[in-house]
Amino acid sequence: MFESLTAPPPDKIIQLIQKFREDPREQKIDLGVGVYKNASGITPVMEAVKEAELRLWNSQTTKTYTSLVGEIGFHEVMIKLILGGSIPRDNIAAAHTAGGTGAVRMAFEIIKLASPESSVWISNPSWPNHRAILKFINMNIREYSYFDRDSRSVDFSGMMSDLKDARPGDAIVLHGCCHNPTGSDLSYSQWEELAEFLLERKVIPIIDFAYQGFGDGLDEDAKNLRMIASKFPETLIAGSCSKNFGIYRERTGIMLAVVQENKTKSVIQSVLSSLNRLSLSFPPDHGARLVTMILNDDELSVLWREELEATRKNLQDLRVRLAGELRDLTGSDRFGFLASHKGMFSLTGCSPEQVVTMREKHGIYLVGDSRINVAGLNEDSIPQMARAMVNSGM
Length: 394
What we know:
Elements: H1 12-22, E1 29-30, H2 47-59, H3 72-83, E2 92-98, H4 99-114, E3 119-124, H5 128-136, E4 140-145, E5 147-148, E6 153-154, H6 156-162, E7 171-175, H7 188-200, E8 204-209, H8 218-231, E9 234-240, E10 252-259, H9 262-279, H10 286-296, H11 298-330, H12 337-340, E11 345-347, H13 352-362, E12 364-365, E13 371-373, H14 382-391
Parallel strand pairs: 1-12, 3-4, 3-7, 7-8, 8-9
Antiparallel strand pairs: 2-10, 5-6, 9-10, 11-13
């Protein structure tokens, strides 16, 4: 039987990680893998997380299962963090998922269960797993323009033009902040215009919210999402704690379904329970419990917020430094977009040939679409990166 199976295409980022590890050069730079790194190249454990783990170790008495949708306490702190009181609690169904990816998968499955003929619109470009998951579960996929590769900014007119073809019952995936892979976000006024446009066409928003706190701050990054959730009759939100708590391997995410009728909320809460039961039975608890402890404790919450803000500022500082170094080398501001982008990622605009040159001649590893993880840089490697970009013909 198994001889009929065909191997799926290899994951390009995983391949890139392996090539980087096999490269013997000391001055190599990894800008591919999508995790935050400090100046030493380490993805650190936050002090707030360490302290919460110590407290948990001393106090936890059981490792038995939680509920199918996870602990209610985790739901409450995440609803407050993401929605900030903008939506009545009775209008929100929630489930702890296996990371933000699990929440995205659950959102897509909800759309398929509710309306299997609907299309799901994703940005071009978008996080590759959006398309991969939709294709795997056999959903109709449509794309909308998002990024102007000349200006390295949002192509809002192209986006709105493409979405004119969206039909009632379709869904659209929106990146809540720090768009992956471009780093370029819609302005608030553009979010407002988009919201009215989608409401008229009865399109359901799915907001992938993986980087809260990495852009302009916790509440600032959630402003657009909260506006959308308050206006639409139905909104699906895929939240993640991987980045802003630094607990990548703990697979801590949440699915929030915001609806306007209590009857609908009861049904969708049952659907969330069923989807978890069919995929992972009971969600992993460790990361969610740490998040709950941190957000419910004044001391730990303050410490975590300070650490997250330091992370955000470091990312922005790296962007400004790289843009400045490139300005000094080229005598132009054509790389100024790097300083205006948000979060960990930017599309630099390298051609595929330039990406290869950067890797083979300069030991700098970036994804084939020219996405860089800014967090892979530090004060010492920024000049090397800037020279490589210029010498590669950018």
